[in-house]
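Structural prep section.
Before we set up the soaks we want a predicted structure of the protein with pyridoxal-5'-phosphate in place, mainly to decide which crystallisation condition to try first. Input record follows.
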Amino acid sequence: MSTGDRDPTVYLDHAATTPMRAEAVAAMLPFLAGSFGNPSGSHRIARTARRALDDARETLAVLLGAHPGDVVFTSGGTEADNLAVFGIATGSGTALCSAVEHPAVLQACLAVGGSVVRVDRRGVVDLDMLVDQLDEKVRIVSVMLVNNETGVRQPLETVVALVRDRAPRALVHTDAVQAFSWLDVAAMTAGADLVSVSAHKFGGPKGVGVLVARDRATPLRPMLRGGPQERERRAGTQNVAGVVAMAAAAEANVRDREEASRRVLKLSTRLVEGILGAVPQVHEAVAPGLRIDAICNLGIEGVEGEELLMVLDELGVCASAGSACASGAIEPSHVLLAMGRSTEEAKHHVRLSLGHGTTQADIDSAVPAFAEAVERLRS
Ligand SMILES: Cc1ncc(COP(=O)(O)O)c(C=O)c1O
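Run finished without errors. Recording the tokens verbatim:
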């Protein structure tokens, strides 16, 4: 996707955030101006907002394979992940998550005294170690559907089966934030008790998301206390405009998903093959069969990822390292470290992520730009 006719920018950072879909912008606008009511009120303006919220809840419930009452609106993926962990874990030893979770799960899990389950060199959760760590005490196990840095898919169905067998009191949470654009999340998460999604990763606005909390996840202890909104699971006036836009984005996304996935498979193959063909000593962090097509993580020998990203930016290509740098210091990716890469190796990776608007022209500009950037940094 170029950001404008005369702007040659190539955006390959869709895993960080996506441009809003036209349907989502159109759905949102009336609720920013005329229909501004508080959905908890009882008069006509409030009722209009309430109806829109209820309709969006129903739409999202269907698309997520849930009941409307299971849908808890949140301020995004981070809050949904935090709510799942803090809302269920009851103290030390009661939470488990994989070592490659997004910090929104990992840090929450560590904060409640939970434990981390190792992944193998491919980035897939080590099921033997999971089995070893499952016991009567565990209340929540969180394993993501798709990793945000590598695109690696986790065997969620097997995780659910193991948890039901070995830790009957535990619930399963899955962070489906990176999955919703590309996979049938409703079908794939049917066995999970708690599921997180975030609107800005699939063409909706930032600052709004959903935690699906099915019956088994009752009671979910709220993190935010106050009014009785969201059936007392999340206090605070709902972001009506954001929720309505999220539902519109989700509908458009599911409608286009198959076609977009086919296109992105071709484009990501062209991108990776193009780069590997043009630039020596570049490798993929994970094999294509293990990951979603939209996220490509490349290791480049002799070139630091952060430097490469700066030169790519100069050349008009927006990409990222896949993990945020905290407090100005560039931390090596905890995901790559968990996959057995050394600190030094982990510094040499960048993530290129495609979206539904990515075009062949984008890819055909990105490949030579990548080759030029690497050559500049190596010479
Ligand atoms: C896998 C995953 N989980 C959670 C989040 C957090 O979502 P949000 O930005 O909506 O807080 C992200 C965003 O990068 C993510 O990629």
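Observations: The CA atoms of residues 24 and 249 lie 5 Å apart.
Flagged for discussion at group meeting.
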